[in-house]
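Entry 14: structure prediction run for Probable dual-specificity RNA methyltransferase RlmN. Input pasted below.
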Amino acid sequence: MGADGRPELQFSTKRRVSQPPTHLADLSLAERQAKLKELGLPAFRAKQLSVHYFQHYTTDPEKMSDLPKERRAELAEAMFPKLLTEVKRLETDDGKTIKFLWRLFDGSLVESVLMRYPGRITLCISSQCGCGMNCPFCATGQAGLTRNMSTAEILDQIVQANRVIAEGGLGGRQHPDERVGNIVFMGMGEPLANYKRVMNAVHRMVADTPEGLGMAARGITVSTVGLVPAIRKLTEENVQVTFALSLHAPDDELRDELIPVNSRWKVDEALDAAYDYYVKTGRRVSIEYALIKDMNDHEWRAEMLAKKLNARGRGWVHVNPIPLNPVPGSIWTRSEPDITSKFVRRLDELGVPTTLRDTRGKEIDGACGQLAADGDK
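Run finished. Output tokens:
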């Protein structure tokens, strides 16, 4: 039992390993300058190295012509230890959706998915190697947790994706300066279970170049299955990210089965924390809801969900239902199209803004809930 008298949850872990070596992206600009001084170089070299990484998307010393030639290889080795090695990439949607399989320094495997939509490019990134939340309908959750990813490992997914875009590797290229504009923490792992490193990465994403990527906070979505204390901590961060709660059921009886963490923090507690995020930040909350055939797709559950959301006010939330993406070996499958339509229509009728989410990457096991970092696929 925990200190508050509630049961402690034990989430599966395969093995524990050390964290990767410190990378430039793990450090603030001031910390980079301090490290350069330790290497016997002037502080301004930190800015040059940061520009190469965050703006030119390179760690190749041969491309750093503004650095002393005799020190380039040494600096690259010290500031850019190899974090993500591409193992495989799979493409669909005429090359507009790419799933990357990455091998980390310790052999762990993670995946990220790059998607081009009309007018924007989105990258779905991972924050943990595996996941410890044990949600039975999610391939990642069934794999268990290996370890948290570092700040730089999280960020390097974006930098490498930007390099692919710059090289013309994403289908439908429109202009030479385009890059990832939207980030969704909906890849492998529970982001708020790796809170410190995830938030360090978010702060680096929104930091002006060359300290960071210079992204808009509103284009970053941080999701959770409902770690209430971490949601409340996020509320106090004063960063205007989009917050998404993966709810999947409005009633505790079913959600206890679908989302094991619900045995610790119940539906109403998670919704209260989500609503408080809206009140504090003014940012509308997203409710993610995977529609599972004969499990959570009943009209009465749509009505219960609407009642709970409307009880907290109007205009604070947007529901994103998505038919469950298939996972090999799962006993559950996606809702039928007519049932999906009825569920969405009922929420709309009850005044809850609802949009059926576009599913990308199913053909390459790159859609929500399908990421399993299987090197054999």
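Notes: Residues 85-364 form a domain with the TIM Barrel fold (CATH 3.20.20.70). Will compare against the previous run tomorrow.
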